[in-house]
Amino acid sequence: MHYLQWFFLWRVHQLIQFSSFSMGMRYLRRRTKVLLMGRILYLFLLVVMMSFSTNGQSKSAIANFQKAQEAFKQNDVERGWVFLQKAIKKGGDTYYQPLIFAGDRKFKEGEVLKAIGFYDKALQIQELSSIHLKKSIVYKYAAEFELAIESYQLYIENSRMSKDRFRVSELALDNLKFTKKKYDEYISLGKPLEVAKLIFSDEKMEYFPSPTGDDQKLLFTARMVRDGVSIDENLFVAERSGGYWESSSKPVLGRVNTRVNEGASSISADGEYMVFTACNRPDGIGSCDLYYSYYDPVKGWGFPELLPGKINTKRWESQPTLGPNGTTLYFVRGSHNQAEDLDIMVAYKDDEGVWSTVEKLPSEVNSSGRERSPFIHFDGRTLYFVSDRSPSIGGSDFFMVKRDSDSTWSEPINLGFPLNSFGDEFSLVVNAAGTHGYLSSNRGIDLVPDMDAMAEMDLYEFALPEKIKPDQRLFKDFIVVHSSTGIPLGLSNVKLKTLNEQEVFAGTSSKNTGLVRAMHDGKSTLRVSAYKKGFLPYSAIVSKGDLMDATRVYELPLIPLNSAESFVLRNLLFDTDKSELLSASEQELILLKKLLVDNPELNATIVGHTDNQGGKSYNQRLSEGRAMAVLLWLVDEGIDLGRLNAQGEGMDRPVASNHTQEGRALNRRTEIQLH
Q: What confidence tier does 200 reach under pLDDT thresholds 50, 70, 90?
């Protein structure tokens, strides 16, 4: 310290002493007050003079620190470190800010343990709770979870918090302990799962993958980035060739992509119907809405239209996922700005093709946090989604639930490492076989991962762990065709059910190809029915053997209405030796009713037939009773009795040999004669 500075302080000290002890008795009452004020003045001037002594050093440290920050901002890392090291050296044991910054830089550059050294030096200068928090984060990324927990506890102990903030911090500590548990589980299994970047995933930001039922195509959303700025969001498709993904993807063909944003799509199992999200369109209802489009093999995806029904509202609808049965659609609904109050909804399509019923999924799925990115598997009951609920590993994690009934779901399972990372997860889907999955994730290691920027958003593939597998599904393709010309009949109503009435598909054939892809378990025989206005209903039973042959497309031929006078309903079922209709017959009866409603000029005679088991008179009565049961069902459904007639032919008109079980099954039939 300069001599003049010491002299100035000495004179102030003398004045304080004189004021305290040499003013006489008449000033004694003021002594305490004067003494206190004098000492405060002394301490203040002492601090000022001390700052004079370090002023040159601090200015140099601050200047170098500012130059370092500017260099890093310009991505001149080497120059930045030169200035930063100078700032640390000049700052000595009083200037901790450059040390914290150096720790942050080392962490950002991936040298996570070197960051700890800088943070520890900063703590030697100044005990700040925020430094303990940074150490906890670094240890977490280094998989040193015990040390991460210890540092976080120090952060809590050294912080002054409100009750609400303390509660949030305690929750974060619980999440950290949960992360350690999940990581220990992962390590104990020998790291059995690897997550690999897909070959076609490039400089684009890619997310919201959606596979077809045969796992040959993957639809996804991509956003181009130019000069660090994200621009137009569009739909892309990647395809397999020879069992391997091609090295590049391409924008989907057709009229879906525009100059505004399109994304968050779901493709049907057959790859010929799509539901996707578009925002701020002139025909839109809310900020973002759900649209649909059909695929044409020549022209690509057709002009999109708003989904009919109650799905789109003035709020924010996005992130659809189609159920395999053709009648369910899961999606996310949020507030106008989408930032809060995100919930997963389910919609049901009615017989008119309208999404007339929309429900919020129960608390097993929707928490008090935000849920998004649902994917309903091809089994129709396993739902994968993203949530920021606790306990979690990162900001938002992948979870899985299974539907036990139409309204009951299992407790959610956090998918753990390495599907969940320390960043924000975005979306995850699984192929029909349940062997592989695809996910999009921001797996950078920033202190605060930026989900909105999605700077590291890519697509990854992984083999599915056994404990989070869905029920395996196989695919079988059906095609509705004109019985005479073989021309595909699009938008035909098609239903497939198992013999125990489990619905496999209930929708329409593809608009341009007549195709229907049924996702089945490979264990069941299916009943199939098809109908289109102007044609006779078609029904058949498809054996397990036919279903397992995925290489052959099963034809559903529809006969034009004016080309035939009668047809057989194969799936009308009765109890043995009884004339009461079984509930499984309803699928077929509805088709017959629709035929008569669509063609009010037609009358129908219902003819019952039996095999030769039992006496002739017995079979005659049985056939008449079964025909009458069908007639009465139609009357109850509003068909005029004057248009209907019922008769029985007993066992007199077989169409196959009664010597085999298969032949007798063909002879037990209900025939509809039109006139």
A: very high
Domain ranges of the chain: 96-191, 195-468, 473-564, 565-675
CA angle 564, 589, 406 (to 5 degrees): 140
Mean pLDDT of 471-488: 97
Domain 195-468: which CATH number of 2.120.10.30, 2.40.240.10, 1.10.10.60, 3.90.1150.10:
2.120.10.30
Q: Taking the domain 96-191, which CATH number applies?
A: 1.25.40.10
Measured at the CA of 620, the angle between CA 614 and CA 623, to 5 degrees, comes to 100
- Identify the CA nearest to 266 among candidates 387, 403, 427: 427
Read off the pLDDT band of 642 (50, 70, 90). Answer: very high
Pairwise CA distance, residues 577 & 610, whole Å: 10
Return the H-helix or E-strand segment holding 147: helix 145-157
51-59: Cβ within 8 A, 24+ apart: 52/1, 52/2, 52/5, 53/1, 53/5, 54/94, 57/90, 57/91, 57/92, 58/90, 58/91, 58/94, 58/95
The predicted pLDDT at position 227 comes to 64
Distance in angstroms (rounded) separating the CA atoms of residues 220 and 200: 12
- Among residues 489, 482, 529, the alpha carbon closest in space to that of 510 is found at 489
Fold agreement (96-191, 565-675): no
E strand segments, 258-327: 262-267, 273-279, 288-296, 300-301, 305-306, 316-322
| Full-model pTM | 0.83
* CB-count exposure of residue 271 (10 Å: 0-12, 13-18, 19+): buried
Whether residue 511 is predicted with pLDDT greater than 70 in this model: the reply is yes
What's the CATH code, domain 473-564? 2.60.40.10
pLDDT (tens digit per residue) in 15-36:
333 333 333 333 333 433 433 4
Go through the chain and tell me how many residues it has: 675
Which residues contact residue 86 at a Cβ distance below 8 angstroms, ignoring those fewer than 6 apart? 60, 61, 64, 68
User: 648 has which bridge partners?
Assistant: 608
Task: Compute the radius of gyration of the chain from its Cα atoms.
Answer: 37
Residue indicated by tokens 């008109």 = 653
Q: 565-675, which class in CATH?
A: alpha beta
Residue 298, SS3? Answer: coil
Contact between 318 and 386 (Cβ < 8 Å): no
**84 touches 64 (CB < 8 A):** yes
Segment holding 235, helix H or strand E: strand 229-241
For 548-584, the pLDDT digits (tens) are 999 999 999 999 998 778 999 988 989 889 999 999 8
In whole angstroms, give the CA distance from residue 591 to residue 589. Answer: 5
- Residue 574 to residues 484, 520, 630, 645: CA-CA distances in angstroms? 32, 26, 11, 19
Instruction: At 277, list the tokens.
Output: 């999200």
CA-wise closest residue to 643 among 600, 607, 609, 608: 600
Q: Which amino acid is at 537?
A: P
Whether the pLDDT of residue 175 is over 90: the answer is yes
